[in-house]
Amino acid sequence: MGKGHRQGRLGEEIKKIVSGMLLKDLKDPRLSAMISITAVEVTSDGSYATVYLSVLGTDPSTETAAEQQSEIIEAFNNAKGFIRREIGHQVKLRHVPELVFKIDRSMEYGRHISKIIDDLDIDHSSDDGEE
């Protein structure tokens, strides 16, 4: 049971470090968009950490948004060594996890589900169980 807490704490620490680096240290022009680190999941053995990114302010259904997202992932992959080194300096670990960057699609999915629910056109004005 204790191991799950360690991965959660390490994930939160990595999220904080990468977010801070995004604001101050990462100077890649491809990272000029509004980017948010939404979550970091660390594997149970601590060898990999998946960093979920959300690109704000773009319509995710457009082709240019997909190109922009792929450029952002490429920029993070280019800076992966620098980010891992900074994590190693700030967190005392024997082995710094290998970083994997992915676009977080949960916001898009949530909007899609909300639209489906709205399209159902269900009347919510009825009282609890009374007919």
Structure description:
It contains four helices and three strands; from the N terminus they run H-E-E-H-H-E-H. It is an alpha+beta fold and 131 residues long. The chain has a single domain, classed as K homology (KH) domain (GMP Synthetase, Chain A, domain 3, 2-Layer Sandwich), CATH 3.30.300.20. It has a three-stranded mixed beta sheet. Helix 1 (2-24) crosses helix 3 (80-90). It is globular, with a radius of gyration of 19 Å.
Q: Helical proportion?
A: 40-55%
Largest sheet: 3 strands, mixed
Radius of gyration, rounded?
19 Å
Q: What's the CATH first level?
A: Alpha Beta
List the helices and strands in order.
HEEHHEH
Strand order of the largest sheet: 1-2-3
Please name the CATH topology.
Answer: GMP Synthetase, Chain A, domain 3
CATH architecture: 2-Layer Sandwich
Through-space gap between termini: 48 Å
Total DSSP E strands = 3
Structural class: alpha+beta
Q: What would you call the shape?
A: globular
> Could you tell me the mean pLDDT?
84
Domains (count): 1
Low-confidence stretches: none
Please identify which CATH superfamily we are dealing with: K homology (KH) domain
Instruction: Indicate the proportion of strand residues.
Output: 15-25%
| Structure annotation, total helices | 4
What labels describe this entry?
131 residues; 49% helix; 3 strands; single chain; GMP Synthetase, Chain A, domain 3; ribosome biogenesis; alpha+beta; RbfA; globular
